[in-house]
Amino acid sequence: MFKKVISVFMLLFICVFFNAFFVNAAPTSVVLQIDNSVMTVNGEEKAVDEGYDTKPIIVDGITLLPVRAVIENLGGNVNWNNDTKEVNITDNENEIVLTINSTQALLNGKVQTLDTAPVIINSRTMLPIRFIAESFGFNIEWNENNKTIIITKNDTSENTESTTEIASEQITESENIKDETLEPENDSNILVAYFSATNNTKGVAEKIASELNADLFEIIPKEPYSDEDLNYGNNSSRSSIEMNNESARPEISNVIENIDDYNVIFLGYPIWWGQAPKIMSTFVESYDLSGKTIIPFCTSGSSSIGSSAKNLEKLSTANWLDGIRFSGSASSNEITEWLNSIKNDIK
Ligand SMILES: Cc1cc2nc3c(=O)[nH]c(=O)nc-3n(C[C@H](O)[C@H](O)[C@H](O)COP(=O)(O)O)c2cc1C
């Protein structure tokens, strides 16, 4: 009897383990095409907008579509509030609020600026899929040849390979835009370190790290920046005061223990009044970076990287390469293209 009970428990354990590991780990891949009302979800054809003939469109370079079916197939939820004209999109961890005709969106309560406002066309809400997919941490690829968008959701790192297989099966007639592999032979010598107050630079940093299979380090302020701290319209806000004080060095709460392991460091930050936030000066001065190659990158509303990296460079003895500025919603393609252009510097 005892043996039987043990066997039943073992069987149950195997079932639960199998289910958790293999079923939940399965990646989902959605392929959409501009002007096509049919999408594929893991190879199965489905309507983009059930009951309607709505097709994804491009407005000012941004793909818009009714996202409910896509998001639900990727495990999220979409709710529409007709009174406020707001769309609330959630997954297990994140919440996005988009408002029709507004370029201001909320991601987990923080204001984000969209390149194109959501609109209503033929009574269907057309939303920016890239912003939503990237906010949820999905991988999104654009294939210019056949105007295809491939969104993949990886639940575990184990499934990266199979996701890639699924995606490439679905675009057989076209060339994959990731034409070159950028993975360094020794994947432990590149670090992507960044500070991000509203997650824009974080998104870019994550894409660089994922593309290069590099380690990622978020520079976390000891005292987090509140919305009021970031209010650049107020001369007495914390960010204004810090940026007007040449010797301000906001404290960092975390440390890179193994800095010696890295010989290439990508260093990311947002532009604040044309410069890097003062916490970046704290970071650069906290480590002996001599002999290392630093590649700066930033995100901004519109400003260029300007003198921001040159001014940080003055604080360290590292070898600094030219930096680059991205918009807050830079695409994977833009980032891949840049990484391809500097690949000889990061070997
Ligand atoms: C305090 C403050 C100052 C800013 N100054 C500039 C600026 O001078 N030029 C600009 O183009 N954007 C400016 N921005 C916008 C940010 O650079 C931009 O939103 C950036 O992508 C934010 O990155 P993050 O989300 O990683 O913090 C500023 C934002 C803040 C909060």
Average pLDDT, all residues: 83
Residue stretches low in confidence (pLDDT < 50, at least 5 long) are 11-25, 156-187
Question: How many domains is the backbone divided into?
Answer: 2
Helix content: 25-40%
- Please name the CATH architecture of the largest domain: 3-Layer(aba) Sandwich
| SS-based class | alpha+beta
Q: Characterize the main sheet.
A: 6 strands, parallel
Helix run count: 9
General form? globular
Bound molecules: flavin mononucleotide
How far the N terminus sits from the C terminus, by CA atoms, comes to 63 Å
Write a concise keyword list for the protein shown above.
binds flavin mononucleotide; Copper Amine Oxidase, Chain A, domain 1; alpha+beta; globular; 6-stranded parallel sheet; Rossmann fold; 20 strands; 347 residues; 5-stranded antiparallel sheet; 2 domains; single chain
Structural summary, described in words:
By secondary structure, the protein is an alpha+beta fold. The chain folds into 2 domains: 28-170, Copper amine oxidase-like, N-terminal domain (Copper Amine Oxidase, Chain A, domain 1, 2-Layer Sandwich), CATH 3.30.457; 190-346, 3-Layer(aba) Sandwich (Rossmann fold). Helices cover 26% and strands 27% of the residues. Helix 5 (200-212) packs across helix 9. The chain is globular, with a radius of gyration of 23 Å. Mean pLDDT is 83; it is low at 11-25 and 156-187.
In short:
The protein is an alpha+beta fold and 347 residues long.
